[in-house]
Design brief:
heterotrimer, A alpha/beta (about 600), B alpha+beta (about 160), C alpha/beta (about 500), B: alpha+beta, Alpha-Beta Plaits, 5 helices, C: about 500 residues, alpha/beta, 2 domains, 3-stranded antiparallel sheet, 18 helices, 15 strands, globular
Chain lengths: ~600, ~160, ~500
């Protein structure tokens, strides 16, 4: 895990787009940097990366690298690399555990690069890049895409291709600092720059030894780089955990708060988890019309917090508050206190955005400890233990921005919520149609009604095995195997008193089409029951996490609607809402909506 | 007296069975000198190995087994093994070049893991030194120091 | 079958393949695998797979489809397969003496007669050895006593165990001890001490009594009778201590000689009767015996593979009849193939374990890359000598140029043949073996008997995975779950 320390903002280049251009006079003191190195060690980092400004022009460079190495950590640099053109400087740094270099080079045409950095540095940068080959470094060459180099990106691919240790990354320019001041000269439209990057990446895929493995991009909406969605690269993919600006006293988690996913454009996009979205300043100026959200496709509805460490809990006080709450990510870290021990977990998932994680954890309380040994828990009541915010957090002034202390709550929310729904479904009479019946979880709910003659039960499911098993369990049921959208067209108009979709809504390919079809087959005054699960997180050991990663359980969700979002889709389509239960801190992750069919 | 050995092309392989030596003439456009040295070195335990340059683009490798008395079969087996080792060395060199980053990364990690951090004893001979490095080309000067005095700075970007 | 032409528009992601009868084994860059029928393989290689078909789904699930290639998953899988790389030396073999009371047909350089007391480790060297071992970066340390016969120099074994336990209070390693002994010199006092100090005991069994006694000659007595008597006694002692007998029992090691080959059924039956749960069908290694002996005990590898196939089938048959016994080679490869993990068996990994995973300490203080390296030195070839516990630092030993060369030589990513081999994600080579048999640490795999064995065994295993019924597959899968023997960890 890397910590990023910005040592000051002075630089031996003067990039046109520099986002810290106004801060160039600010330099951190050596003592301050030393203190931050020591703090990084205490927080458990394994690498310290110095950035700026340009960290290599500081005379204390060797001293800092030595301090990092002496603390048993690896050393890294975010740099324009020029100083590394001195082979002996690089040798000394390698001996001091230099393992990571993130170096800027903005064009393969020297003139353009020099104009962008406003210095004659291209030849020196190439010399540095050659020195860096074959040294076992994690080496990224970062190119900021501005209007100046937009049409020459392939030239950089040609320069980097033979330097096989380097990964080439294209970064979107952030409208901030220099780039904001010279906005129209520097910042291209995102669709235009993404098209140029897509062209360069495609070219790189063809000509670079190593191909995709050596190509990355950052700051571009993923929907604009089709075919390279997985090649995104940011502080998290580089395993940065925390960072500290020159004028900050403590480390803060890395985040994406300078970017946003414009609503509603991005709301349903399946790429949202890892996607950077748009820079806020860019969105303010140009809006979101250039985005091409990918709303189709399956996705997960659960994620893992993975165990990182277990420590003894202090007998008094809170270990988070006592040590400073800022390094811990409110969404991605999870502290669980139980029986005198505190376990620290971290979620590295990129399937979900931080906002989704924050909501599941802090607003909805959908965090569970996985007590099973299965790849995927399937009996929630026995497999999962709910985690709730500790009472000790209530009076704490840091509560709002702290990741929080959680404790297991041994109340069986799953069994309780499930039983409540089952009892009510078992009381249904008349003609019932179930969409996505599956087999097992609720099959037996219908048996008393069927056997007692009060219920006629019809069900639809695309899985032939589930249909066969359900038929064996409920011989009197009428079952159809197929996609609901198609099967419903063959069912009689007004043929049903109740339609139910239990844990099926988010699995439906075209949910709105199904709702409209149900409006035809359910009698006026008849009911529609929707019960489904929201996003939740599991606290797991590394072994559990890896077992789950290895399992072949296919993703089945086409969306992750909660009750509110599902209702927003249904409203105005011929149904009147009569009952709504949302997911919350005291419930399981199950929500419920009940509608009545409007009279025609 | 030069003789040929069964199955070996006489243009490449010749032997003097009475003198107990066998030779392979290698085309250096097929095998690099590095590969020839590597293969030859693997035989110095068993043979005296002599390298000659009979013509441009050719290296002749002569193997003379250390214990004397090798017969034709033994010399044939020896030069056959050498030819195989030479091919192996050439091909390995190619593979190592294309997989170099991976091999170096794994080796470096293995040694970092096995060696651990140096103790004070290990570090006795190593000069860490906190002194700043020398900067004869003025690379580490700040942009302001280096360029502000100049009458003209490189231009702002244009389309 | 020709290698399919690859181009950027093709269906398949990078793959390697190997034909096995009616089937073709396909492995991916990162070691995911699938066994295809020939027609399926042809469709796969020629990009003629119907989108959404069962084959398409299977191939996608194995990350073998270019369009859906999951780079992150591949990277994580590769990292998991090489998790051992950072580990540091965890296996430390200590030869406390060369003296041995038995004379074995295949053992030459590893033994001395009982009067050769100068081959006992001195207390000073024993202490320095312990200190060196505990400097390892590995959090897990297994000290394995070998010989010679360790019971001949039992006071040195006691000294090493006691010092290691004492020193480990500050070193904090997960420490365990294993002793490989023929058991002939065991007595109740020694046994009590070994049990009390949680030293795991292993022995050698070459097969049934007639074969064992013939190959392992104990003057004036039957080596078989003494070994089996003590196996029963030790197993009983574990049971008396309340330890689960399925987990805690004497394990035995087999040396497969020419004579063993036809007696596979008898070997398996013997191991089952002795209560062993594992049988390691290792071929005899080329170290430590004279050329004359080689002709007696060595054999072509094809004969060995036929033996292996018979024995494995018979072991599976035993399992189907309810006997739980596994074959160690199969378990090692299957763990890699089926679970994606690496059991860190030091001779079958890439890079190999010499120096970076194990070290061997001779009675005279000399440190070697492995026991094989030590045996070569005893036969006059000091190539794998790294230093001396009395004068070398730990980092000098582990950072020795020889170890660096071995790590590179045994990295299959730089090995001709291996880089194209279907089984490369699961395989490994041993520089000492290559050096001894082929003259260089790298070796030439086409001529390597070790490669023939590894490849042959994996052929047999993939055949099983392709054709076996569910019960057999379940048995093979069970072999990949190894329960830790926590009792043997020092508290």
């Amino acid at each position: 895990m890397k910590a990023l320390i910005k040592v000051g903002y002075a630089c031996n280049e003067h990039c046109t787009f520099c986002h810290t251009q106004e801060l160039r006079e600010i330099q951190g003191t050596s003592a301050d940097v030393e203190r931050k190195i020591d703090r990084a060690k205490a927080l458990g980092h394994t690498m310290v990366v110095l950035s700026g400004g340009e960290p290599t022009i500081r005379p204390e460079l060797m001293h800092w690298a030595g301090r990092v190495a002496a603390a048993g950590m690896d050393f890294g640099l975010v740099t324009n690399g020029l100083v590394l053109a001195y082979a002996e400087v690089l040798e000394r740094l390698l001996a001091l555990r230099l393992r990571y270099v993130y170096m800027s080079l903005h064009c393969g045409v020297g003139e353009t690069h020099d104009r962008m950095v406003r210095a004659e540095s291209f030849a020196t940068a190439l010399r540095a890049l050659d020195n860096l080959q074959g040294r076992g470094l994690q080496l990224t060459v970062n190119c900021v895409v501005t209007r100046a180099n937009l049409r020459q990106l392939r030239s950089l691919v040609d320069v980097i291709a033979p330097r096989t240790d380097a990964v080439l990354k294209f970064s979107a320019v952030e409208p901030k600092g220099g780039a904001l001041r010279l906005h129209d000269l520097v910042v291209p439209r995102i669709s235009e720059s993404a098209a140029a990057v897509l062209d360069a990446l495609t070219y790189g895929r063809a000509v670079m030894p190593g191909g995709d493995a050596r190509l990355r991009h950052g700051g571009f909406p993923l929907c604009l780089l089709p075919g390279f969605e997985h090649s995104y690269d940011d502080l998290r993919t580089h395993a940065y955990w925390t960072m500290v600006e020159t004028d900050e006293a403590n480390f803060y988690p890395v985040d994406d708060r300078n970017k946003q996913h414009p609503s509603p454009t991005c709301d349903d996009c399946r790429l949202r988890g890892p996607c950077p979205g748009l820079f806020r300043a860019y969105h303010q100026r140009y809006g979101a019309d250039e985005l091409r959200p990918q709303t189709l496709g399956v996705r997960g509805n659960a994620f893992d917090w993975v165990l990182e460490a277990v420590d003894d809990a202090p007998s008094q006080g809170c270990p988070l508050r006592d040590d400073g709450v800022t390094p811990w990510e409110p969404a991605r870290h999870l502290f669980v206190r139980h029986q005198g021990r505190v376990a620290r977990y971290r979620a590295t998932t990129r399937d979900f955005h931080d906002d989704t994680l924050t909501r599941a954890k802090h607003e909805l309380g959908q965090i569970y400890l996985d007590a099973s040994r299965k790849p995927a828990p399937n009996d929630f009541a026995r497999d999962l233990v709910k985690l709730s915010r500790s009472e000790m957090c209530s009076p704490c002034p840091e509560r709002a921005h702290c990741t929080g202390m959680f404790e297991p709550e041994f109340s069986d929310v799953f069994e309780r919520d499930d039983a409540a729904v089952r009892t009510r479904l078992a009381a249904l009479a008349g003609d019932v149609l179930e969409i996505g019946c599956g087999y097992g979880r609720t099959t037996d709910v219908w048996r008393p009604g069927l056997e007692g003659g009060t219920l006629r039960y019809t069900a639809v499911d695309p899985d032939p095995e589930a249909i066969a098993a359900t038929q064996a369990a409920l011989p009197a049921a009428t079952l159809h195997c197929g996609e609901a959208e198609l099967v419903l067209t063959a069912l009689p108009t007004g043929g049903f008193d109740h339609a139910v979709a239990l844990h099926a809504w988010n699995h439906l390919g075209d949910a709105v089409a199904v709702i409209d079809a149900l409006a035809r087959v359910v009698r006026p005054g008849g009911e529609l029951w929707l019960v489904d699960d929201g996003v939740f997180g599991l606290a797991r050991t590394r072994a559990q996490h890896e077992l789950a990663q290895r399992s072949e359980a296919a993703l089945q969700h086409h969306r992750n609607d909660d009750a509110g979002r599902a209702h927003a889709r249904i409203a105005g389509r011929g149904w009147t809402l009569v009952e709504r239960h949302d997911v919350g801190p005291t419930t399981s992750n199950q929500w419920l909506l009940r509608y009545q069919r409007c009279p025609t | 007296m030069s003789e040929s050995l069964f199955g070996m092309p006489p243009a490449n392989v010749d032997a003097d069975i009475a003198e107990g030596r066998v030779a392979l003439t290698v085309d250096t456009s097929l095998h690099s000198l590095d590969a020839i040295y590597a293969a030859a070195y693997a035989f110095i335990g068993r043979c005296y190995v002599l390298l000659e340059r009979p013509a441009p683009e050719r290296v002749r490798v002569v193997l003379a087994p250390k214990p004397s008395g090798a017969d034709g079969d033994a010399l044939r087996a020896l030069i056959g093994e050498f030819a195989n080792e030479l091919l192996s060395a050439t091909w390995r060199r190619e593979i190592t070049r294309s997989n170099r980053a991976l091999i170096e990364a794994v080796t470096m990690q293995a040694f970092a893991g096995a060696l651990g951090s140096p103790s004070l004893d290990d570090l006795e001979a190593f000069q860490f030194g906190d002194e700043p490095f020398e900067d004869p080309l003025g690379i580490a000067q700040s942009w302001e120091e280096k360029y502000r005095k100049k009458p003209r700075t490189p231009e702002e970007p244009t389309e | 079958m020709k290698l399919p032409v690859s181009d950027s528009r093709s269906y398949a992601a990078f793959f390697r393949f190997r034909e096995l009868g009616e089937h073709v084994v396909v492995t991916s860059l990162e070691g995911e695998w699938v066994v295809l029928r020939r027609d399926e393989f042809s469709a796969f290689a020629n990009g003629k797979v119907e989108p959404g078909s069962d084959l398409d789904v299977r191939l996608q699930a194995r990350n073998l489809v270019r369009e859906h290639f999951d780079v992150r998953r591949a990277a994580e899988t590769m990292a998991r397969r090489r998790r051992f790389v950072h580990g540091g030396p965890n296996l430390h073999l200590v030869v406390v003496t060369l003296r041995c009371n038995e004379t074995c047909v295949y053992c030459h350089a590893s033994r001395a007669d009982l009067d050769a007391v100068h081959t006992d480790m001195t207390p000073e060297i024993a202490d320095a050895t312990v200190d060196m071992i505990l400097r390892t970066t590995s959090p897990h340390v297994t000290i394995e006593f070998q010989g010679g016969e360790p019971l001949v120099a039992f006071p040195i074994v006691e000294r090493i165990v006691e010092r290691a336990v004492e020193k480990n209070r500050s070193a904090g390693k997960q420490l365990e001890f294993t002793m490989v002994s023929n058991l002939a010199l065991m007595d109740e006092d020694k046994l009590r001490w070994l049990l009390g100090h949680r030293v795991q005991i292993c022995t050698s069994i070459d097969g049934a009594k007639s074969l064992h006694d013939k190959q392992r000659v104990l003057p004036m007595a039957s080596s078989w009778d003494t070994a089996t008597k003590w196996i029963a006694r030790i197993n009983a002692a574990y049971a008396e201590a309340g330890l689960d007998p399925t987990l805690y029992h004497v394990e035995a090691l087999l040396t497969t000689t020419r004579e063993t080959l036809s007696r596979w059924r008898e070997v398996v039956d013997t191991y089952v009767e002795l209560g062993c749960r594992a049988l390691f069908l290792r071929p005899v290694d080329p170290f430590g015996f004279a050329e004359k002996t080689r002709r007696v005990v060595e054999y072509p590898r094809a004969e060995y593979l036929a033996f292996y196939r018979h024995a494995l089938d018979y072991i599976i048959e035993k399992n189907r009849a309810g006997v739980e016994i596994l074959e160690r080679y199969a378990a090692i490869f299957l763990t890699k193939i089926l679970t994606g993990d690496d059991p860190n068996f030091l001779d079958i990994r890439s890079p190999g374990g010499a120096g970076i995973g194990q070290l061997a300490y001779n009675f005279d203080g000399k440190v070697f890359s492995s026991d094989e390296g030590r045996m070569l030195a005893a036969a006059g070839d000091p190539t794998f000598l790294l230093g001396d516990v009395r004068s070398s630092s730990y980092r000098e030993i582990v950072g020795h140029p020889t170890i660096r060369a071995m790590a590179i030589a045994s990295n299959l990513d730089g090995q001709p043949d291996c880089i194209d081999c279907t089984y490369v994600p699961y395989c490994g080579t041993q520089p000492e073996h290559n050096h001894k048999t082929l003259g260089t640490m790298m070796g030439r795999m086409r001529e390597s008997s070790m490669c023939a064995v590894h490849k042959g065994i994996q052929d047999i295993l993939f055949e099983k995975l392709a054709t076996a019924d569910n019960e057999t597959l379940e048995i093979l899968r069970r072999w990949t779950t190894i329960r830790p023997r926590e009792h043997f960890l020092q508290p």
